[in-house]
Automatic annotation (TrEMBL), chain A:
Keyword Oxidoreductase applies: yes
Keyword vocabulary terms for this entry: Oxidoreductase, Pyruvate, Thiamine pyrophosphate
Gene name as annotated: pdhA
E.C. numbers: 1.2.4.1
Record's function text: The pyruvate dehydrogenase complex catalyzes the overall conversion of pyruvate to acetyl-CoA and CO(2).
Region called Disordered, residue ranges: 1-22
Protein name: Pyruvate dehydrogenase E1 component subunit alpha
Subunit composition and interactions: Heterodimer of an alpha and a beta chain.
Taxonomic lineage from the root: Bacteria, Pseudomonadati, Balneolota, Balneolia, Balneolales
Signal sequence extent: none
Domain (Dehydrogenase E1 component): residue spans on this chain: 54-346
Pfam families, per the entry: E1_dh (PF00676)
Transmembrane segments: none
Cofactors demanded by this protein: thiamine diphosphate
Automatic annotation (TrEMBL), chain B:
Keyword Oxidoreductase among record annotations: yes
Protein name according to UniProt: Pyruvate dehydrogenase complex E1 component subunit beta
Stored Pfam families: Transket_pyr (PF02779), Transketolase_C (PF02780)
Domain Transketolase-like pyrimidine-binding as annotated: residue spans: 4-179
Organism name: Rhodohalobacter sulfatireducens
Gene Ontology molecular functions: pyruvate dehydrogenase (acetyl-transferring) activity
Names of the cofactor(s): thiamine diphosphate
Classification via InterPro entries: THDP-binding, Transketo_C/PFOR_II, Transketolase-like_Pyr-bd, Transketolase_C
SUPFAM superfamilies registered for this protein in UniProt: Thiamin diphosphate-binding fold (THDP-binding), TK C-terminal domain-like
PANTHER family: PYRUVATE DEHYDROGENASE E1 COMPONENT BETA SUBUNIT, PYRUVATE DEHYDROGENASE E1 COMPONENT SUBUNIT BETA
EC number in record: 1.2.4.1
Keywords of this entry: Oxidoreductase, Pyruvate, Thiamine pyrophosphate
Keyword RNA-binding on entry: no
Highest taxon above the source species: Bacteria
């Protein structure tokens, strides 16, 4: 019997063909933790500090965006806005000498791991006072002395490097855990799968965390990857978890449990954190692949607003203290902009510096 | 002649070829629903549908290889890389497979595939997004490498590339996509792969440059003309096969040559062309051949260092002054 032939179609379709105006949320968020901060082992000061850190990330980037739009610096600018609970919950859960590595959406990660607002802003401006001496820019914030190994611009490129940092920690028997963050888009790179296999095989103390923010550039997660991301772990016999990344306590609780387990068992973990990016992929993104309504759904559960309400509801601090913190951070960011503007560009000689640790093997230098 | 942007010229080439041959399809990151990261493929999804305009995950190795397999099995894929800097991940498929399959299997199969996308730097995008890969691919047998500088070249050469029965590396530039130029309206306009074009005639010095560097060289030539130095500007358009005959003919006239190459200095187009010139035209040279390339360091982010890093018209003028003993 002749089958009716349908035209072959390969990639799944998205916005243009489906959704009929309904809000098609790109990531489903699991429930947040019900525990209060003291149940989680966090002090009042910790919670205030968490709020400060999240607010710093937010204002740093909002101001950076303004400066970018004023043409103060060029290059890419991938904003982490919306995802701050992930970085913040994580640094509180990890030990200070545990290692962190991430992709190019890295400003928040730098700021929670000791890149100062000044060093960060100066890096965006390409100044010699930047955390990477102006050599890296937005995509390559780093603070190696604080075990923040930096942001990387090739999607998936840093995943095996995270495994390698964990390898060295196991080799040195130093009990450090590595947390390697990647986007949902990076899940599709072969490097992840090679690294997961070797990590389980070699028992590397590494947590691979997918920050599923719903999109890989203009492509919704459901259009670029199959199944549930966290279930990829099954194929490698690896432990896994999926949790809400719009709430710092939830991130903290889960990352604490997971890092304790990795440290104790000496085995890797694969984690999917569901979150959302409010801004475009980079600065030139028209954002036509999602609706305003969808974005607003997530902004309603903003992690910073949530934390602010918590501080007030639990009477940890009063509104005037919150205002004071916010004003302080605002000043810190504005000072960082002044600092970046006033700092020098690197000397011409710097072009040839930092290529090599030893003898600089530079061909045909003119 | 019609005035088109570079991106439009490329789109026309793809569109015309796709409309003539059902076996041609295009795939890559964001090429379909997003209309292309640089809007090169804008409108093609609407015209050709989901079967032939295909969004891929960020899996360069995978989709490049799927392209190679599909090409072996009778299709004619156009694989777009968001930039050639990301095609590094697909290097195994391009270098170990696309370029070698036919030879390894004693000629039993062909791999008619075009890998295309922007090459080299596009402003301050840092070390991993700024490398010119044309010379690197040219080192491998089995591939043609095209890096045109103007919309007309782009259209004619891309059509030829798509019709070619072997793998072609086709390079563009993020910074040239908006560049306008006259494009032939000739029906079925193609340009033979491997033919340089003398784009400016002059008697004093031969300057060879393609891709983005062609425009730098052109600026330098205009500047030098004010000082009565007449540059003969040759755009090879194709890195491989390299049209050395056209260059030699010019060098025999001008007796001097500067090659501008966007790659790092070691073993690039500049060194290859320089070698061939000394072998074929040694007795005609009045000065050693000079080159302008990137320095042998990675791209810095900082604007100041980046500007120092990227070849500019002044460097070309200095090199011309060196070969004409004007300094
Ligand atoms: C190998 C490679 N391919 C493509 C790109 C271009 N690119 C940069 S970011 C990106 C999307 C990545 O999305 P995701 O991993 O979800 O991270 P997010 O941007 O959401 O943080 C793409 C396609 C790249 N930088 N590297
Ligand atoms: Mg994403």
């Amino acid at each position: 019997m002749a089958k009716e032939k349908k035209e072959a179609i390969f990639a799944p379709t998205g916005l243009k063909n489906s959704n009929n105006g309904k809000i098609d949320k790109s990531v489903d968020l699991p429930d947040v933790t019900k525990k209060k901060h003291d149940d989680l082992g966090l002090s009042d000061e910790d919670v205030v500090k968490m709020f400060e850190l999240m607010y710093l990330q937010r204002r740093f980037e909002e101001r950076a965006m303004q400066m970018y739009q004023k043409g103060k610096f060029g290059g890419f600018l991938h904003l982490y806005i919306g995802q701050e609970a992930v970085s913040t919950g994580t640094v509180f859960a990890l030990n200070d000498d545990d290692d962190i590595i991430t992709a190019y959406r890295d400003h928040g990660w730098g700021l929670v791991r000791g890149v100062t607002a000044k060093e960060g802003m100066a890096e965006l401006y390409g100044k010699v006072t930047g955390c990477s001496k102006g050599k890296g820019g937005s995509m390559h914030f780093a603070k190696a002395e604080n075990h923040f190994w930096g942001g990387y611009g090739i999607v998936g490129g840093h995943i095996p490097i995270g495994g390698g940092i964990a390898f060295a920690n196991k080799y040195k028997e130093n009990d450090r855990v590595t947390a390697c963050f990647l986007g949902d888009g990076a899940v599709d790179q072969g490097s992840l799968h090679e690294t997961l296999n070797m990590s389980q095989l070699w028992k590397l103390p590494c947590i691979y965390v997918v920050e599923n923010n719903g999109y890989s550039m203009g492509t919704a997660a459901s259009r670029h990857t199959v199944g549930e991301i966290h279930e990829r772990a099954k194929g490698y016999g690896m432990k896994s978890a999926v949790f809400n990344g719009m709430d710092a306590f939830t991130v903290y609780e889960n990352m604490k449990e997971i890092s304790d387990d990795v440290r104790k068992e000496g085995l890797p973990y694969f984690v999917e954190v569901r979150t959302y990016r409010y801004r475009g992929h980079s600065m030139s993104d028209p954002g036509t692949y999602r609706t305003k309504e969808e974005l607003q759904e997530y902004q309603k559960i903003d992690p910073i607003e949530r934390m602010k309400s918590y501080l007030l509801d639990e009477k940890i601090i009063k509104q005037d203290k919150i205002d004071e913190i916010q004003d302080g951070i605002e000043d810190e960011v504005l000072e960082a902009i002044d600092f970046a503007e006033e700092s020098d560009f690197p000397d011409d000689d710097a072009l040839y510096e930092d290529m090599f640790t030893g003898t600089p093997y530079i061909h045909d230098k003119q | 002649m019609a005035e088109l942007q570079f991106r439009e010229a490329i789109r026309e080439a793809i569109d015309e070829e796709m409309s003539q041959d059902e076996n041609i399809f295009i795939m890559g990151e964001e090429v379909a629903e997003y209309d292309g990261a640089y809007k090169v493929t804008e409108g093609l999804l609407d015209k050709y549908g989901l079967k032939r305009v295909i969004d891929t995950p960020i899996s360069e190795l995978g989709f490049a290889g799927i392209g190679v397999g599909a090409a072996m099995n009778g299709l004619r894929p156009i694989v777009e890389f968001m930039t050639w800097n990301f095609a590094v991940l697909a290097a195994d498929q391009i270098l170990n497979h696309a370029s070698k399959v036919k030879y390894m299997l004693g000629g039993q199969v062909s791999v008619p595939i075009v890998f295309r996308g922007p090459n080299a730097s596009a402003g301050q995008l840092g070390a991993t997004h700024s490398v010119a890969y044309d010379s690197m691919y040219a080192q491998f047998p089995g591939l043609a490498v095209i890096y045109p500088s103007e919309p007309d070249d782009a259209k004619g050469l891309l059509k030829s590339a798509i019709r070619n029965d072997d793998p072609v590396i086709f390079m563009e530039s993020e910074q040239m996509y908006g560049l306008k130029g006259e494009v032939s309206e000739e029906d079925d306009y193609t340009i033979e792969i491997g033919k340089a074009k003398v784009k400016r005639e002059g008697d004093d010095v031969t300057v060879v440059a393609t891709g983005k560097m062609y425009h730098i060289a052109k600026q330098a030539a205009n500047q030098l003309a004010k000082d009565d130095v007449e540059v003969e500007l040759i755009d090879p358009r194709t890195i491989k096969p390299f049209d050395i005959e056209t260059v030699i003919k010019s060098v025999k006239k001008t007796n001097r040559c500067v090659i501008v190459d966007e790659a790092h200095p070691f073993g690039g187009m500049a060194s290859e062309a320089g070698f061939l010139i000394q072998r074929e035209a040694f007795d005609y040279l009045d000065a050693p051949v000079q080159r302008v390339t990137l320095p042998d360091v990675s791209a810095p982010f900082s604007k100041k260092l980046f500007d120092l890093w990227l070849p500019d018209a002044k460097q070309v003028i200095d090199a011309v002054n060196a070969v004409t003993y004007r300094n």
